[in-house]
Amino acid sequence: MAKNEECCSTQLIDGDGAFNATGIEQFIKEVRLGECGLSYAVVSIMGPQSSGKSTLLNHLFGTNFREMDAFKGRSQTTKGIWLARCAGIEPCTLVMDLEGTDGRERGEDDTAFEKQSALFALAVSDIVLINMWCHDIGREQAANKPLLKTVFQVMMRLFSPRKTTLMFVIRDKTRTPLENLEPVLREDIQKIWDAVPKPEAHKETPLSEFFNVEVVALSSYEEKEEQFKEQVANLRQRFFHSIAPGGLAGDRRGVVPASGFSFSAQQIWKVIKENKDLDLPAHKVMVATVRCEEIAKEKFANFSANEEWRQIEDSVQSSPVSGFGKKLSSTLNACLLEYDEEAIYFDEGVRSAKRKQLEEKLLQLVQPAYQSMLGHIRSGALEKFKEAFDKALNAGEGFSSAARTCTQSYMALFDEGCADAVIEQANWDSSKVRDKLRRDIDTHVASVRAVKLSELTSSFEAKLNEALSGPVEALLDGANSETWPAIRKLLQRETESAVAGLSSALAGFEMDEQTRDKTLTSLENYARGVVEAKAKEEAGRVLIRMKDRFSMLFSHDSDSMPRVWTGKEDIRGITKTARSASLKLLSVMVAIRLDDEVDNIESTLSSALMDTKSNAAVTERSITTYDPLASSAWDEIPSSRTLITPVQCKSLWRQFKTETEYSVTQAISAQEANKRNNNWLPPPWAIVALIVLGFNEFMTLLRNPLYLGFIFVAFLLVKALWVQLDISGEFSNGALPGLISLSTKLLPTVMNLIKRLAEEGQIPATNVPQRNPALAAKTYRNGNGTTSDMSTASSGWKRVLDSGNENSVDLFSFEIDSWLLVQSSVGNFHISLADTSPTSASQYFISTDGVLNARARVLGGGSSINAGFYTRASTRFIKKVGWDENLVNESYPWIEKQIVHRPKVAPWQVALRNSLLDVGVSPFNGFTYDHIYGTKFGGTIFDQFGRRHTAAELLASGNPQKLTVLIHATVQKVLFDTSGLADNPMNAIFVPSKRPVQQSLIQTVGITKLGVYIEASSGFGQSKESIHCHHGIMSAEIGQLSTIPPKQRTPEAIQAYIKRKKDLPHEAFKGGFILEKLANPISTGQLSLINTNVNDNPSVTFNYFNHQKDLQRCVSGIRMATKIVQSEYFTNVTQCDNQTVEKILNMSVMSNVNLIPKQPNDTKSLEQFCKDTVITIWHYHGGCHVGKVVTPDYKVIGVQRLRIVDGSTFDESPGTNPQATVLMMGRYMGLKILRDRLGKEDGV
């Protein structure tokens, strides 16, 4: 490509007809043709070879085409077609210099390129210059005629809508004036036009329809150069503003925009080369199509890379974009405007079509973002609707009203959001998204409606369940003739109340009448179902209920006091009454009677099961007599309402009689035994005979008083022997066994009595004061539960020593001490713990943690003051401490045979058992001493009469001659482990009761896998002695159940309370406790001596719940305990409504069971509750650990002939209660010591 400062040129088509696409693209960029739009013109020149075409163009347009060098000869200068831009002419004008015609280089036959180039020039150019010699005008064989024929012939192949300007440039003009030359030239042109073959459509078309003919003349360049240049300069002026209307290129129809010139020229040349007809209008459309597509692609790519669009696209994926519609519409509009600016000059139809396609593609590109935006608007409106809807419902607005208001509000909000997201260029419909939002709202409303209705229904069902279950169970428990009428009345009342409440609540839902009635009917059916389910449940326990009722009526009198079978009771009548009551209960439980229908089931059962005489008579008359219970259905009751069939009633009654027969037999035996014991006086006639016959002897005694003294001494001796030999007890099992037993015991007893009297006569009286008379046990209970004086067991002892004074021995007495009688009773077990007097059997202390505690200071140790529960250690513990399992299994039964009893389980303990099983502490292991996971009844050291049997009674099994018992013993040197002391923390939950609860200590235990034990006690402090005794600051009522606030608990207030307490009825102290004890605590503490006085307590710290795991286990245990308290079994026993957890815990916190300051969140945080209400169950251990203080054989390290055999050697408390293991441990170590000394070969 040639280039100078003002002009540049390039070869467009080479001599071989190859189109220079690269060159023209570079040329167009160089001259910035694309910016011209339609404001450009194309000029081409045709003419004979060497006619000065290039010279003319160079002078006319300032181009730099190659010119012929005349000095070198005349030859072809321009090959093919060259293109250049005119210099200094506006608008932009392109000039094409065509290869000359008639050139010898191509020859006569090669006219194809001439025609092709001529056609190309006519198709592309606005102005065609035809260069011709002046002397050829008017000549038939002039050189210009073939050229004109070629031009006109090719013109027939063009279908161009516009006129092309043919400017004939007459070169080397002679003197002939132009006015004379021009007509001749035009005549020749017309002749040529007429001679050219034309299509049928253009046969009559004049030349002027296709061409604007212009004629100019120029002087000879070689001869008149200056004149030539002047004429060329004048001609040049005509090319300025040539595209203006009336200008040389004023017809702009079909003009290809400048940006499409390169492509258009290339396609035109391609069509010409293929020798096809050139349809310029179609070509224009094709060029417009291609170029508009290119422009559209470019603008689409630019839009896709647009930073603002990319930012909107990214942002809308995660959240809504503010002003989305306006921003995107603006960006799209800018893109389309750019397209319009570049494609404005192309064919309007094509341009518009391509613009529409571009717009569609752009909208397709942005549509996902628009949909995302709508999605955000929809989801945002939905979420806001949900929040507003919930808020409206929580504020108490009616459901339907709230739904309607919120729906309208947030559908309008959605419409506003959609309006903001609208894209101006798109006509997208958001109705589908709107419909989806409406469906989502409707779905949410429906789901909330279902949930609310379900909650509402469930709430009323729960209220019905609470209102019906407990009372129905209580009514069935106290079954009588009015039970089912009362249940029907209760059901009707509660159902009507619930239905009325539900009906009122449903008003806000605007339900249709049918649905509303269906809902209310469902609630009524539910209420009936609750009663029926409870009736079926109770029917499953009817045998237990019957036995409980029988036991209550048979074993207790009308005042609910236990019967004592003295021989005056009518056992037959009592049995019949109790069985009748049990049968009444059975008749009530036979069927569901919620309808006012009368049946004769009770009379049928009574006649079939209770009327034994008539049954016997019927049996005697005929064995084929009809049995009313030999059926699987009742005549009056349908199977759907039958709970117990007649056959099942018969079977249950048979089982009931079998299981209650034992109680009747025992009562009869007790009466007979009582009669035998009380039948020691002679018959009345014998007494009268003695008085009559012994009158003289009686008078003799009166005359001689010495006889009376002798008789009195003899009476004392006989009375002593009577007591020592326990004659009444020996004869309680029969006369012969009693005589045999007395014969073996008489002589040793008499000898011991004489020996003791002799010893007491030899020992001088001392003035040593007795430190604590109560510390020595005055009586003990033998295995049969009778009371005997301790001297029986102690009269043969070698010495009973007070280590403070070895001469003080008179520590036993025949006098029955009232203190021991009171404190050895199960009903007053707590009195010794509450007693803080110097003579108390327990010494209370307060650990530095603020927990009240106690230690025993009486013969028998803890077994004399504890709750009496007896249960063995686990096998794991036995293996851990390294004991001989066989010897352990021998030692436990030895203890159990002498002082352990099977408890008579109280209702409170039964309720605990049932509740434990209900919360999953299973299985039920029945009565057992063994430590087994699940729920069980354990043993007790209280007998069936409530009397305590302590470890002191085990002394009676030893050889009195070889026993030495030390009391008030002191030591000179103390060795103990100051660390590792531990106590099993316990937390108690108080359970109130509306009625008095039977006294019970620990009988039932739940051994859980959570690391906690669940136990219970009840009827605390209801006995006469409890209420009317002075217990001081440690009183159970003051310390645990006081109504006196802690800050007001002054000594004066306490004394006033004690005085008032004497006037309180027994019922003032009702209810009981659920106890949660931590097994094997990880937290440990320490102890230290305050002084050397053995009577003063050491400083003890247990660090309860110092370890987080202990606290976590306590929380788990409290959760389980609260579930137990809330169970139906306890609400049935206490007749109290089910309490909330917070209320239950609050009652326990207010009991002030310790001196730990209470926190405001005690009832909110179970962790804080555990810490603030911790108490002890007296199972502390440690202080004398094996390996630190004692050896594995329990010998004190560094001390000769001293062992410690008690719980202080344990590093964990064995089983649920250490008492059994500590008692067994004494027997175990005694046997082990003997075996080690004597050897197993001696049979020890």
From TrEMBL:
Q: Does the keyword Membrane apply?
A: yes
List all topological domains (Cytoplasmic): 1-681, 727-1244
Tell me where in or outside the cell this protein is found: Endoplasmic reticulum membrane
What are the UniProt keywords, alphabetically?
Coiled coil, Endoplasmic reticulum, GTP-binding, Hydrolase, Membrane, Nucleotide-binding, Transmembrane, Transmembrane helix
Coiled coil (residue ranges): none
InterPro entries, from UniProt? Answer: FAD/NAD-bd_sf (IPR036188), G_GB1_RHD3_dom (IPR030386), GMC_OxRtase_C (IPR007867), P-loop_NTPase (IPR027417), RHD3/Sey1 (IPR008803), Sey1/RHD3-like_3HB (IPR046758)
- What does the entry give for GO biological process? endoplasmic reticulum membrane fusion
GB1/RHD3-type G domain mapped to chain residues: 37-252
Q: Which residues bind GTP?
A: G47, P48, Q49, S50, S51, G52, K53, S54
Protein name as it appears in the record: Protein ROOT HAIR DEFECTIVE 3 homolog
Q: Which organism is it from?
A: Hevea brasiliensis (Para rubber tree)
